[in-house]
């Protein structure tokens, strides 16, 4: 057993912001929480400044709110902001093993123990370096490569889901915004002269024979249960809870010791909306969770031509507009009245045009992939703990 200080160094090399491209720039915001790597930053620093110069295979961690578990192993050289810590394995140590060691939940707990500040806690750089790491030089590369291979698989599945969702959004835009769905001749409806009629509810034209219904008439709407926070627990129970913070990542972060009615249980494919703050909206991926208060569930009827994904895309622009309009207040709130002002488009299903069938198949694939991601992530975290404690080993031949 050794300390992080014996295994790695903080990178202090510097580079000018004008010397890198946007794709090479990393900030705390571009690192994704829950160990999901990074996305491209939206902008380079507006003024020329000095950044930390990281190299390929270095490990980057956000030092703001460490409990968000933002970590990424660099796949190229670049520069990062000062609130991103960069670790580089010392000579004769594996950078991939360093990455695996810092992926441990125990590492982030260790950082939080020394963190300073309440609203925006930051880790103490000296205390961080006292984190203990089990070192076995002969197995470092094997373990590191094993964990990196799992990360590669997770990244691939996420990419597949990203492309599936992009495809679904594109289809929605063609069919429900431009109204160029296939007509009976298989040609784009509106572009081929399909008749359009004015709809007073939406304040725009929609295809003839289509209809518009209120949200409450189009889907089943259920508000969440007011679970007592005093009965929340991190221990597994039969009542996993979905809170607003869980909606974006489709995750479970807390459980309850409290019993509740089955009507608050979520089904896979339900659309859920957070009614406070950023008004997160997403589909749900399992049948094993209950909805907390200040969240609302939208569930489509099996016989309806309206799909869950269409519901998501119909509603999302209005939810986002409400979010933007509430930015001036401390915390925005979505009210029952806001939901009752929303409408869904009711398409006419024909032999050539059955959008629900296609949208449901895409959603099913995304849900299956999401469950695979969750299962593999859970296995990864358990294996890292066992590997780092020396409780299991990896056969070199494998």
Overall, the morphology is globular
- How is the quaternary structure best described? single chain
- Please give the alpha-carbon distance between the first and last residues: 25 Å
Name of the top-level CATH class of the largest domain: Alpha Beta
Question: Could you tell me the mean pLDDT?
Answer: 93
Give structural notes.
The protein is α+β, with helices and mostly antiparallel strands and 398 residues long. The protein folds into 3 domains: 2-132, Adenine-n6-DNA-methyltransferase TaqI, Chain A, domain 2 (Alpha-Beta Complex), CATH 3.90.220; 136-182 and 349-398; 211-346, Alpha-Beta Complex (Adenine-n6-DNA-methyltransferase TaqI, Chain A, domain 2), CATH 3.90.220. 33% of the residues lie in helices and 19% in strands. It is built from 10 helices and 22 strands. It has a 4-stranded antiparallel sheet with strand order 2-9-6-7. Strands 3-5-8-4 form a 4-stranded mixed sheet, with no helix packed on it. A 4-stranded antiparallel sheet has the order 14-21-18-19. Strand 18 and strand 19 form a beta hairpin.
